[in-house]
Structure formats: structure tokens, C-alpha cells
């Protein structure tokens, strides 16, 4: 069996497992300090998480300490609301896959999170329309803007 310290880059500090509970009730697992090349969030059956659990004497996932509980009592990063927050990825998971967890995130209340997505979607429509106009496709650009969500106008 390979030496896990070498395999996962653990040298000085044993990475400790933690849980983060999100506003929608989902639980994500991480280890800190994060070893080189290790994703931010680990699946419950990831050998790195299981090994860290063993090092700290945790036999089941529910024994892992909660680092953050985002279900209540948190301030939105956009408005003054305090309550459950959702994590908004600045780099979309659809485009970047699990690598999106390596980029900064915003903590937003559900209303501001929805608003942010509406703004970003609308902004995308505006960029497409601008590009079409630059290609001389004015009629098509107008059609795109006619079907753009209200947030873009």
C-alpha cells in the first residue's frame, strides 16, 4: 500500500475533516488544510476524507465537526437580510465542473441569489445581441433582446 502522506501531499499538518451545511440542507465535506491538488469538496466515499476521518477517530460522517452552518443566522453579501444563505459560484459549475469550488463564492440570501442569476442571464443575452449587431445581424439582435428577461433592460 502506498504511503498516504506522500500520495496526498500531507507532510506537516494532518488535514482535519469538516462539514459545511448549506441553506438547502445539503452537506459538503472538506479537509483543512487542503492538500495540494485536492478538490475543495469531497464525496463521502473519497479515500482522502475517509483517511482523515480515521486519523481523527471519526467512524461515521455525522461525527465530523460542522465548520459552517449556512441554514440560519448569516448575513447576505448583497442586502442586510439575516437568515439562511446560499453559496453563489462566481465561476459556474456548468462551465467549470468541480473546479468552480476553487474560485471565490458569494454568500447570498435566496432572493439575492435568484436576482444575481437573473442579472447574469440577462447580461449574457445583452452580450449576444451586441455581438450580433457587430456582425450586421441587427434584426436577429433585436429578436434576442425582445426575448430577454426583464432584468436586462
Topology:
Blueprint: H1 4-8, E1 16-21, E2 27-32, H2 47-55, E3 66-69, E4 74-75, E5 82-83, E6 86-89, H3 93-96, E7 105-108, H4 110-134, H5 138-146
Parallel strand pairs: 1-3
Antiparallel strand pairs: 1-2, 4-5, 6-7
- Low-pLDDT stretches: 1-12
What's the story with the biggest beta sheet? 3 strands, mixed
The count of helical stretches stands at 5
What's the number of structural domains?
A: 2
Mean pLDDT, to the nearest integer, reads 79
Task: List the secondary-structure elements in sequence, H or E.
Answer: HEEHEEEEHEHH
**Class inferred from helices and paired strands:** alpha+beta
Helix content: 25-40%
> What's the arrangement of strands in the largest beta sheet?
2-1-3
User: What is the approximate shape?
Assistant: elongated
How large, in whole angstroms, is the Cα Rg?
21 Å
**Content of β-strand:** 15-25%
Total beta strands: 7
User: How far do the termini sit from each other?
Assistant: 60 Å
